[in-house]
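sry for the spam today, last one i promise. C-alpha cells for design, 245 residues
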C-alpha cells in the first residue's frame, strides 16, 4: 500500500507529450491504478500490461470496462521474465512510454542459469522503447546508512497509519449508531502497534529487493541510461526515475 497520487500525476504529465497514438507498455500493472490514469489521459493510446497475478488483471479489466477504456488495452498474465515470451506477447510493439511501478524490486538482483536478472531485464526494457521514448520507474529506495533506513521505515509506518485512519473513519461513523463497540474498536486500530505491523506486512506480500539510491544510480549509469530522479514528497523512500531513451 502506498500513496501513488503524486507520482501518478507526474506520470500522466509525461504522457501528455505530443506523441500521436502513443504505445504504452507496463510491467507490474496490478489492479490498474496507473493503467486507468494512463488511458484516461491518452484515450488514443495502445496499451499492453504485464502482470503476474491473473486476479489483479481481472480487476484492472473491470475498472477499464466501467470507464469505457477497455478497447485499447491488452494484458498478459501471468508471465515469466523471458525475453522471447515477452517479445511474442508484444508482437513487435515498441513503447513510446514504459511504466514500471515498483516492479523492478521484484526482479532478482542476481540469478543462476537462464533466469533474467535486474540489469538484464532493464536492458531488455530499453530495447522495447522507441528512440526518444521514456521509461518511468517507481521504486522503493532504502537508506545509504542505518539512520536513514530507520527514518524511512518510521516515515512509511506513519504514512500507512494516516491512510488507514482516513479509510476507516467513514466506516467508523457509519457503524456508530449500529454497533458502538465495533466502532470504538475500529477507532483504536491505527494505534495498535502489533496489528498495524501485521496489516503493513500483508500490504507488502511480495518479497522485494530494494536498493540504496547510489546503487540505482550506478546500475542506470552502467546501462548508459540518461535519467532524472524525483523523490516523493511524503513517502520519502519512494522515487520516480524518468529515463530518456
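last one done:
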Amino acid at each position: 500500500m502506498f500513496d501513488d497520487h503524486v507520482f501518478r500525476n507526474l506520470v500522466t504529465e509525461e504522457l501528455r507529450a505530443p506523441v500521436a497514438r502513443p504505445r504504452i507498455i507496463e510491467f507490474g500493472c496490478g489492479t490498474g491504478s496507473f493503467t486507468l490514469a494512463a488511458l484516461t489521459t491518452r484515450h488514443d493510446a495502445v496499451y499492453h500490461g504485464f502482470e503476474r497475478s491473473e486476479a489483479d488483471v481481472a480487476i484492472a479489466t473491470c475498472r477499464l470496462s466501467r470507464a469505457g477504456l477497455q478497447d485499447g488495452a491488452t494484458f498478459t498474465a501471468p508471465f515469466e521474465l523471458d525475453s522471447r515470451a515477452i517479445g511474442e506477447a508484444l508482437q513487435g510493439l515498441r513503447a513510446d512510454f514504459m511504466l514500471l511501478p515498483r516492479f523492478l524490486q521484484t526482479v532478482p538482483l542476481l540469478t543462476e542459469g537462464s533466469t533474467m536478472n535486474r540489469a538484464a531485464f532493464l536492458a531488455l526494457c530499453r530495447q522495447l522503447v522507441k528512440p526518444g521514448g521514456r521509461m518511468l520507474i517507481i521504486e522503493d529506495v532504502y537508506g545509504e546508512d542505518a539512520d536513514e533506513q530507520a527514518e524511512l521505515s518510521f516515515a512509511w509506518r506513519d504514512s500507512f497509519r494516516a491512510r488507514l485512519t482516513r479509510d476507516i473513519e467513514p466506516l467508523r461513523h457509519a457503524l456508530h449508531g449500529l454497533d458502538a463497540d465495533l466502532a470504538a474498536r475500529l477507532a483504536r486500530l491505527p494505534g495498535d502497534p502489533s496489528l498495524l505491523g501485521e496489516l503493513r506486512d500483508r500490504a507488502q506480500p511480495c518479497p522485494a529487493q530494494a536498493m540504496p539510491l547510489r546503487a540505482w544510480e550506478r546500475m542506470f549509469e552502467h546501462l548508459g541510461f540518461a535519467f532524472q530522479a524525483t523523490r516523493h514528497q511524503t513517502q520519502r523512500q519512494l522515487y520516480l526515475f524518468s529515463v530518456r531513451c
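The radius of gyration is 19 Å. ok im logging off now
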